[in-house]
Amino acid sequence: MQESVSYYHRPVLFEESLNGLNIQPDGVYVDVTFGGGSHSRGILQCLGNEGRLYAFDQDADAEANIPADSRFTFVRSNFRYLSNFMRYHGVKAVDGILADLGVSSHHFDNAARGFSFRFNGELDMRMNNRNGKTATDILNTYSEADLSDIFFTYGELQFARRLASHIVAARTQKPIQTSEGLLEVVKPFIHRDKEKQTIAQVFQSLRIETNSELDSLNALLRQTVSILKPGGRCVVITYHSLEDRMVKNFFRSGNQTGENVEDLFGNRITPFKPVNNKVITPSTTEIASNPRARSAKLRIAEKK
């Protein structure tokens, strides 16, 4: 089992994220991004006989990594439905929530899933490949305006409008269905010195739209306020600026915009207090051993 877990995903900021949870032996915790199960196994090692761990994952592949442990409950679902499933399991409040928002190595290294431009494969990109629209559907059915919004908002691409126009023209000749097909369309907009970065931004924007990632993150963050016990911890690892900005704003102000709400005395009203005032990033040693860790940022907040 350990070999399959290691292959599935190499966890980033592993010790830092577990320490951030401040795990109590008899506590109740939720790993909302189970994946290969590394974080969940780490949490279980810190729990006593009375502790409980619930883990969420919408990807069927993750179910192969479920540990045989009576303290563990797996939920086959997107974490945006956290509160619903906690109520279903009779859990009123939890001591900690962990979210590692990165795409797993398993997804990037599996050509059939379509997440990586390193392999030629169908542009699926669904975290839950049992239902929902694929990246291919988006590329071939969305309007030029919608495609432009996706590339500009989620990929932060300055040439988003021209790229969208080029895609709409190209798909009239033949559908864009594979990684190679998309790379061929994107090629005119790529400068050699920023080739990988630009392609990654294109793929990132499609993946975010395919999985409604920011909407799901927004839903998760809002639910943490009601489901965490006072003193409970929320630990989130992000991998791009859009996610990190949302988490930073929410932990600071209790809303996605970061707008301060003050009481009559000018004190900021927020449900959280920061545990780490400065964002935690991987060490140079970790990045050297796992280059995919380089963009990771860890933020920890405690419910007041």
Describe the structure.
By secondary structure, this protein is of the alpha/beta class. It is built from 13 helices and seven strands. The two termini are 39 Å apart. The N terminus is likely disordered.
Which percent range fits the helix content?
A: 40-55%
Shape: globular
Please, what is the average pLDDT?
A: 90
Give the distance, in angstroms, between the N- and C-terminal Cα atoms.
Answer: 39 Å
Strand content: 5-15%
Listing every helix as H and every strand as E from the N terminus to the C terminus, the arrangement reads HHEHEEHEHHHHHHHEHEHE
Major beta-sheet overview? 7 strands, mixed
SS elements, strand count: 7
Q: Give me the number of helical elements.
A: 13
Structural class: alpha/beta
Q: Name the strands of the widest sheet in spatial order.
A: 3-2-1-4-5-7-6
Poorly predicted residue ranges: 1-7
Primary descriptors:
13% strand; 7 strands; 13 helices; alpha/beta; disordered N terminus; seven-stranded mixed sheet; 304 residues
